[in-house]
């Protein structure tokens, strides 16, 4: 499990990481819009980055988060 | 079972955020729906009524919009309009406080609101700052009216941690949350500290080392002239630390010394060094010797009849801290910051000593525990206890619990562990109900002797039952500082006299064992109570033990008309 998946598991304990690319808002009960916001805040803490308002409202899947981190030169 | 805590915010508190986890591990935390605080406070909500504490997190910016400020700026009677505005804002809170006795912590910040004021108003107070002051002072006055209201200003901790780090305007516009991730962490921590102030028993005694703790340097090596206390630099830090300790002492925290030093040298510093803020008289016990500190602490515990779990130990030496903790695991050993400069603030914020309610009894504690230590010392040297007790001229008194003594009665219920027959932790509201019912007898006892006043030190609550011949001893307790003087016998006698006047013939009582009250294991039999199975069958048939939630095998009774309470002769007024 990479750092991002660890964070997902920590934020949403019931998540099934096996669904892979389908990991996005709504894929488990805890991952609702509030959960999503808390997840993005945790990502900011963990990777020492700061997302824009647009990213905070638009990043709703693992892939999108990876992309936003990638734009900052962080590859996972 | 964990205590239940309900959290409401004027802006979103981000439930589920990782920084709430520590609070959620210790308490059963429920978040109110965003924006629902006013309705819930006004109309009640079953799910939250059962909470032990309701926390309302308030940002003035959320309650007073920019548009209202613009209107207010045009007002001809600003004061009146601001008063009306604040009163309107606080109406839901006042309704909640009136409807329910659930404890409410209002944790508020006016910092970001005041900061929005225009900077060109340097010659007058801004409307924002007048509103902020009015809001705070109205809350303060509500605290006078409602004893279950607790106030916690967040601005001090936000200033300490940094406004920019705690707030995040992006989060506000993206998710209606004023806090940054770090800010949530700070808020959760402050709430936790304050819940501990409400729920955990306050520590009673601070035990201090001397060298490099109360002053800089080693007295035995440097001599009195060269220790650092009061001089510029580090000497000033040690002095400020002593000021904080003195402040704790004034609020009722007892002080003791456990120092490896020559006794006379230390006393001389306390008596003669001009930089010392603490004086010999501030300490209830001074163990200055070359013994193991764990032994000294055990001796202090015996002298004062206080449990070591109510002690806090502060020593600069990690070895002493570690050794003492190993021998006395129940002792709270402080890990002080590495720099003495940080000690004054660290001690001021130490949650073990901070408590919301301080009664006048707390403030007189130092004197009373000194009396206790003196009593124990004299008693040790006297073989005939009864003669000794007679010689100290004890004069007990009892009063019915009333509005003036209700706080102390509740404090006794909450804090007394050793001499406590049933350890029932009555709330303020419970006690009010008990006292207001005509058929119950609630007596609070006071004691004085040749050493001085001991204050209000005993409580006895007798509840009536559906059988008018029979009453039940719901609570019987004595403060540990007056144990060993037969005061329990005298208080019980006063209770029985009162019951006799009310035509009660039998008093039932029960001992509920706890980890700490083994002291009263034989209390009932020593005063003439008998097991309930020996009661006349005709009387027993008419007693409903369910009504008083008493276990049959633990219940005892005394026949009020025939009993003979022993040891009353030791009291002057008997």
Written description of the protein model:
The complex is a heterodimer of chains A (76) and B (574). With 76 residues, chain A is an all-alpha fold. Chain A has one domain (3-13, 23-71): Non-ribosomal Peptide Synthetase Peptidyl Carrier Protein, Chain A (Orthogonal Bundle). Chain A contains four helices and no strands. The longest helix of chain A has 15 residues, at 33-47. Chain A is globular and about 30 Å long. Chain B is α/β, with parallel strands linked by helices. Chain B folds into three domains: 4-199, Rossmann fold; 205-353, HAD superfamily/HAD-like (Rossmann fold); 383-570, Aminopeptidase (3-Layer(aba) Sandwich). Helix content of chain B is 42%, strand content 18%. Chain B contains 26 helices and 17 strands. Chain B has a seven-stranded mixed beta sheet with strand order 11-12-13-14-15-17-16, with helices on both faces. In chain B, helix 1 links the parallel strand 1 (4-9) and strand 2 (28-31). Chain B is globular. The chains are: A mainly alpha (76), B alpha/beta (574). Chain A binds chain B through residues 10-11, 30, 34-35, 37-38, 41-42, 44-45, 52-53, 56-57, and chain B through 12, 14-18, 170-171, 173-175, 177, 181.
CATH architecture assignment name of the largest domain in chain B = 3-Layer(aba) Sandwich
Quaternary structure of the protein = heterodimer
User: What's the CATH H-level superfamily name of the largest domain in chain B?
Assistant: SGNH hydrolase
**Would you give the CATH topology of chain A?**
Non-ribosomal Peptide Synthetase Peptidyl Carrier Protein, Chain A
Q: Percent helix among the residues of chain A?
A: 40-55%
End-to-end distance of chain B:
46 Å
Helical segment count of chain B:
26
The SS-based structural class of chain A is mainly alpha
At the first level of CATH, what is the class of chain A? Mainly Alpha
Strand content of chain A: under 5%
**Biggest β-sheet of chain B, characterized?**
7 strands, mixed
Number of strands of chain A: 0
Given the structure, what is the number of helices of chain A?
4
DSSP summary, beta strand count of chain B = 17
């Amino acid at each position: 499990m990479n750092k991002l998946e660890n964070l997902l598991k920590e934020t949403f304990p019931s998540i099934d990481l096996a669904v892979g690319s389908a990991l996005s808002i709504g894929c488990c009960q805890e991952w609702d819009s509030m959960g999503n916001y808390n997840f993005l805040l945790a990502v900011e803490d963990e990777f020492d980055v700061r997302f824009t308002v647009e990213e905070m409202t638009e990043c709703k899947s693992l892939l999108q988060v990876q992309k936003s981190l990638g734009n900052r030169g962080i590859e996972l | 079972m964990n205590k239940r805590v309900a959290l409401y915010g004027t802006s979103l508190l981000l439930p589920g955020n990782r920084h709430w986890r520590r609070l959620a591990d210790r308490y059963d935390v429920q978040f109110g729906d965003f924006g629902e605080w006013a309705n819930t406070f006004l109309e009640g909500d079953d799910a939250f009524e059962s909470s032990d504490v309701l926390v309302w997190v308030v940002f003035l910016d959320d309650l007073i919009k920019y548009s209202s400020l613009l209107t207010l700026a045009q007002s001809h009677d600003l004061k009146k309009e601001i008063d009306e505005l604040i009163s309107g804002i606080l109406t839901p809170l006042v309704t909640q406080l009136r409807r329910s006795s659930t404890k409410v912590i209002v944790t508020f910040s006016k910092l970001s609101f005041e900061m929005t004021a225009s900077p060109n108003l340097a010659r007058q107070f801004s409307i924002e700052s007048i509103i902020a002051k009015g809001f705070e002072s109205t809350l303060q006055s509500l605290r006078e009216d409602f004893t279950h209201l607790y106030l916690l200003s967040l601005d001090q901790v936000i200033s300490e941690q940094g406004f920019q780090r705690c707030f995040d305007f992006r989060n506000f516009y993206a998710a209606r949350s004023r806090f940054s991730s770090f800010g949530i962490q700070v808020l959760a921590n402050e709430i936790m500290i304050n819940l501990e102030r409400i729920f955990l028993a306050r520590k009673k005694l601070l035990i201090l080392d001397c060298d490099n703790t109360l002053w800089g340097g080693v007295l035995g090596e440097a001599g009195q002239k060269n220790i650092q206390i009061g001089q510029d630099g580090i000497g000033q830090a040690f002095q400020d630390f002593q000021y904080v300790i003195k402040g704790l002492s004034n609020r009722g925290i007892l002080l003791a010394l456990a120092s490896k030093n020559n006794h006379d040298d230390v006393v001389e510093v306390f008596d003669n060094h001009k930089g010392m803020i603490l004086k010999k008289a501030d300490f209830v016990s001074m163990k200055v010797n070359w013994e193991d500190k764990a032994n000294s602490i055990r001796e202090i515990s015996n002298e004062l009849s206080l449990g070591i779990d109510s002690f806090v130990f502060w020593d600069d030496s990690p070895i002493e801290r570690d050794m003492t903790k190993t021998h006395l695991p129940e002792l709270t050993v402080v890990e002080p910051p590495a720099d003495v400069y940080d000690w004054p603030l660290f001690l001021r914020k130490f949650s073990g000593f901070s408590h919301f309610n301080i009664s006048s009894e707390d403030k007189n504690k130092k004197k009373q525990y000194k009396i206790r230590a003196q009593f124990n010392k004299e008693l040790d040297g006297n073989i005939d206890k009864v003669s000794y007790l007679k010689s100290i001229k004890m004069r007990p008194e009892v009063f019915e619990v009333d509005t003036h003594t209700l706080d102390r009665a509740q404090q006794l219920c909450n804090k007394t562990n050793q001499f406590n027959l049933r350890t029932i932790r009555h709330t303020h509201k419970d006690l009010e109900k008990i006292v207001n019912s005509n058929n119950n007898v609630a007596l609070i006892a006071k004691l004085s002797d040749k050493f001085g006043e001991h204050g209000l030190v005993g409580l006895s609550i007798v509840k009536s039952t559906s059988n008018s011949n029979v009453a039940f001893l719901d609570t019987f307790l004595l403060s540990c500082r007056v144990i060993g003087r037969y005061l329990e016998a005298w208080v019980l006698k006063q209770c029985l006299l009162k019951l006799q006047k009310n035509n009660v013939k039998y008093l039932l009582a029960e001992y509920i064992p706890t980890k700490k009250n083994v002291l009263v294991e034989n209390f009932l039999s020593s005063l003439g109570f008998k097991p309930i199975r020996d009661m006349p069958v005709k009387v027993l048939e008419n007693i409903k033990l369910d009504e008083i939630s008493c276990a049959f095998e633990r219940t005892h009774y005394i026949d009020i008309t025939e009993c003979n309470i022993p040891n009353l002769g030791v009291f002057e007024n008997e």
